[in-house]
Automatic annotation (TrEMBL):
The keyword Cytoplasm applies. This is Epoxyqueuosine reductase. Keywords: 4Fe-4S, Cobalamin, Cobalt, Cytoplasm, Iron, Iron-sulfur, Metal-binding, Oxidoreductase, Queuosine biosynthesis, tRNA processing. GO terms for molecular function: epoxyqueuosine reductase activity.
Length: 390
């Protein structure tokens, strides 16, 4: 192919990508040398937590051409995922409901986007038969956000997520590595965050340790999804009712007021996950969990982590006899041969039960103080002040 043909092909690639449901496409080279020191320092600080593969792959994440020898360009794509009536704030404000990151309410995006990228690759091959290509959607060590910035899809916000001035940050990213010398799109050179630090101050656990740097070990998304073991005691009360992921840094971001709902049917919210009761989810058996999360990204964390996350949320919920009973039943069953509960999960259930029982004791003390106030003939307003000041 001659150089002018590559100009035309790049134009066609963007049209074909739009037909496949991608909301934006950009093309860039593979040079990420400027990001290698940042990646090395992030790993050195241990911010990757238990994600050993981050360190194991080393600088390959910043060298796409090592993943697919001969790679000259990266076709970077984004696909909006925000479902209609996302109800982020309303679910977070109801502590008896379980909050699931909005990206996980529908079908698992990994397979969907990878299949679409494969179709895009097949279409390109019809015009460039010597094409060598490989699609990625969180499936290989690739620094997808810096690549997307270079491809003109947005800028990296202080929460480390990519932000687009028309769609905020509620979208998925994917890449198609190709061996074609396609023309390169203009990178985003000016980020739009300015002096805003809303995402940093809004993070429940203080995971954004400095602008553009996230300590995964404190991030609720990491804790509820990636971490396999126990959640640190000091972080549990800060997690609230977030049982799979966290959207707080996105919820507070001013740019997300421009976010449009996804038009992809597979990303529509499932009724059983949109605003579920914590106790209802806690009652799921493992087979029921697998059935209800079939085709969902939630399924990959497994029943063990699911129960762990629910236990923390129940411990953070308002004191309730129903919650106490459910937790006690799980503890009692763990001591029988009828049901075996993982020790790590049981520890979280016992923690949640202790939290609930402490709440019940606090209510009892308030009640006793109020009774004493009544007995002493205190004025009404003083009684309530005495009851609250425990």
């Amino acid at each position: 192919m001659t150089a002018p043909n590559f100009e035309s092909l790049a134009h066609d690639i963007k049209l074909w990508a739009a037909e496949l449901g991608f909301n934006q496409v950009g093309i860039t080279d593979t040079d990420l040398t400027a990001h290698e020191p940042l990646l090395a320092n992030w790993i050195k600080q241990g911010y990757h937590g238990d994600m050993d593969y981050m360190a194991r792959h080393g600088m390959m994440r910043a060298r796409p051409h090592e993943l697919l020898p001969g790679t000259l360009r990266v076709i970077s794509v984004r696909m909006n995922y925000l479902p209609e009536q996302a109800a982020i704030a309303s679910v977070l404000s109801q502590p008896n409901l379980g909050y699931i990151s909005r990206y996980a309410l529908g079908r698992d995006y990994h397979k969907l986007m990878r299949q679409r990228l494969k179709k895009l690759s097949d279409r390109i091959m019809q015009s460039a038969q010597h094409l060598v290509a490989r699609p990625f959607v969180d499936s290989a060590p690739v620094l997808e956000r810096p690549l997307a910035v270079k491809a003109g899809l947005g800028w990296q916000g202080k929460h480390s997520l990519l932000i687009n001035h028309k769609q905020g940050s509620f979208f998925f990213l994917g890449e198609l590595l190709v061996n074609l010398p396609l023309p390169i799109d203009q990178a985003i050179t000016e980020e739009g965050c300015g002096k805003c630090v809303a995402c940093i101050t809004a993070c429940p656990t203080g995971a954004i340790v400095e602008p553009y740097v996230v300590d995964a070990r404190r991030c609720i998304s990491y804790l509820t999804i990636e971490q396999d073991g126990p959640i640190p005691l000091e972080l549990r009360p800060l997690m609230g009712n977030r049982i799979y992921g966290c959207d707080d840094c996105q919820l507070i971001c001013p740019w997300n007021k421009f976010a449009n709902a996804s038009q992809e049917p597979d990303f529509m919210a499932r009724d059983n996950l949109h605003a579920p009761e914590l106790l209802a989810l806690f009652a799921w058996s493992e087979p029921h969990f697998l059935k209800q999360t079939e085709g969902s990204p939630i399924r990959r964390i497994g029943y063990r982590r699911w129960q762990r996350n629910l236990a923390v949320a129940l411990g953070n919920a308002p004191t309730s006899p129903a919650i106490i009973l459910a937790l006690q039943q799980q503890c009692e069953q763990a001591k029988t041969k009828e049901k075996v509960i993982d020790e790590m999960v049981l520890e979280h259930i016992e923690w949640a039960l202790a939290q609930q029982q402490q709440g019940l004791a606090n209510i009892g003390r308030k009640t006793e103080r109020l009774i004493r106030a009544v007995d002493k003939g205190m004025p009404n307003h003083a009684r309530f002040m005495a009851a609250d000041n425990t």
